[in-house]
Write a structure and sequence with these properties.
alpha/beta; Aspartate Aminotransferase, domain 1; Aspartate Aminotransferase, domain 2; 2 domains; 3-stranded antiparallel sheet; 12 helices; 12 strands; globular
């Protein structure tokens, strides 16, 4: 099996697995217990916290990092908790049409006034619309750094500037950008990240919070995480996340760039049309479409290759991708799109072989 679905999840780094094993097999203490073994577990959690903070980049150590069950919880907490704290004076949340469902659905479920900003055919948020929408009634602006479906990078810096100018908080879903592009810490007040998108374990994420921007708690109980997030932490998952964060390196990005150039020589225009901007994007995500392509048939014929039909989060739902609709794709164009994701453990040889198989199978449908 050739794995080309890095936006859905990434392979677990062997180093992260090895770091987790002792905490799964031998060291079972609760990190919130006061005895010696509990303190040892807590120390391991704090090392992991520092490793994730370090990977977030310059300035991250000025804020607090709270471990969560994943980025979905982090987004729910950032948006719901901020609105809970500010809704009396600021009843509005501003977000973007191409956001992940965990952001869009949280905004809609909040009871706040929701302003969803449009994007152009390139997938980039409309600046005029953003300037008009972000005002002194806005509690929080929520925007994704790198889109999970089409890989487009949003201008978080100026969105954060608009938010700050109006007195609103800036929340960034950096799940797909963490370790792949620079995370604009200085433009943000809250940032969500996830371990399993950076070769760590599933079931753990984190919310970075700038001092003074702490959201109200949405999980109530023991307040184990800084008095704001309740629930017993798993030292194994924390340690795995920390080890994966420590391994993040520029070489991964350079490798993805090399693979991108190889991929584009095989899946090139005009037969394969790019979804989203070709330049303002992370180049480990290739989202393309071919006219009249039957993607279900293609995936069946290429069953030894793991790739995605649109977003993994919408697969099997029967719904057309809201991201592809937002950039102007028709239903037919959206349904003829595929997403190829590659990264650290993808070799050039296996990528060439897999994409050649996909390309050949796709073209055969047109005969």
């Amino acid at each position: 099996m050739t794995y080309l679905d890095y936006q859905a999840t990434t392979p677990l780094a062997p180093e992260a697995f090895d770091a987790m094993v002792p905490w799964l097999r031998d060291q079972h203490a609760n990190p919130h217990s006061p005895h010696r073994e509990g303190r040892r577990a807590k120390a391991a959690v704090e090392v992991a916290r520092a490793q994730v903070l370090g990977a977030l980049g310059a300035g991250a150590d000025a804020g607090r990092l709270f471990f969560t069950s994943g980025a979905t919880e982090a987004a729910n907490w950032a948006i719901g908790g901020s609105l809970s704290r500010l809704n009396a004076t600021r009843p509005k949340v501003v977000t973007i049409a191409t956001e992940h469902a965990c952001v869009l659905d949280t905004c809609r479920a909040s009871g706040a006034e929701v302003m969803v900003l449009p994007v152009g055919a390139d997938g980039i948020v409309d600046r005029t619309a953003a300037e008009a929408a972000i005002d002194d009634r806005t509690a929080i602006v929520a925007a994704m750094l790198v889109n999970n479906e089409i890989g487009v990078v949003q201008p978080i810096e100026w969105l954060g500037e608009l938010a700050r100018r109006s007195g609103a908080l800036m929340f960034c879903d950096a799940v797909q950008g963490f370790g792949r592009v620079e995370v604009p810490i200085m433009a943000c007040d809250l940032i969500a990240v996830s371990a399993h998108k950076v070769h760590g374990p599933k079931g753990i994420g984190a919310l970075w919070v700038r001092p003074g921007a702490e959201p109200a708690a949405i999980l109530h109980g023991g307040g184990q995480e800084g008095g704001l997030r309740s629930g017993t932490l798993s030292p194994a998952l924390c340690v795995g996340f920390g080890a994966a964060a420590r391994l993040l390196r520029p070489e991964d990005v350079h490798h993805a760039e090399r693979l991108w150039r190889v991929a584009r020589t095989i899946m090139r225009d005009p037969d394969w049309m790019m979804n989203g901007d070709a330049d303002a994007r992370y180049h480990g995500n290739l989202n393309v479409r071919m006219e009249r392509l039957d993607v279900a048939r293609l995936m069946s014929e290429c069953r030894d290759i793991a790739f995605s039909a649109g977003s993994a989060c919408a697969s099997g739902s029967g719904r057309t991708s809201h991201v592809l609709r937002a950039i102007g794709c028709t239903d037919a164009e959206a349904k003829s799109s595929i997403r190829i994701g590659f990264g650290r453990y993808t070799t050039e040889a296996e990528l060439v072989e897999a994409l050649t198989v996909i390309d050949r199978a796709a073209r055969a449908q047109r005969l």
